[in-house]
């Protein structure tokens, strides 16, 4: 059944466009990032509700447990990036090469931290993915 995913996609695009129009003035380019995030979150909620009703329910405890781990990892990543940005702020004004190096360091280290926290916290989906990659590399 593809009716609901298509409806969700159209709702997400419409939400995205409306939010951009409403927020582009005060938020400038940040409006695009905010509206895209909100539209995708709304699409996720819509499709989750549809799936929940089609399956006559699914285990919400597991979902919320995983969500808690993801929120914790995201908060740790935010704190890391906040601290790292403050440490590198003076260095980042040195030109294009130093700016790019700092951004690569910030993105790479925060991605490793986020993934590491999720793996160590036992997020099942990530653990399965990491184990499959490890088995392919052997």
From TrEMBL:
Is ATP-binding a UniProt keyword of this protein? no
Coiled-coil ranges from the UniProt annotation: none
BP terms from Gene Ontology: peptidoglycan biosynthetic process; regulation of cell shape
Give the matching Pfam families.
Answer: MurJ (PF03023)
Where does it primarily localize? membrane
A single Gene Ontology CC term: plasma membrane
Keywords of this entry: Cell membrane, Cell shape, Membrane, Peptidoglycan synthesis, Transmembrane, Transmembrane helix
Q: Does the keyword Acyltransferase apply?
A: no
Protein's membrane topology:
Multi-pass membrane protein
- Which compartments is it annotated to reside in? Cell membrane
Where exactly are the transmembrane stretches of this chain? 6-24, 31-52, 64-84, 96-120
**What InterPro entries would the database entry show?**
MurJ (IPR004268)
Q: What is this protein called?
A: Uncharacterized protein
Species in which this protein is naturally found: hydrothermal vent metagenome
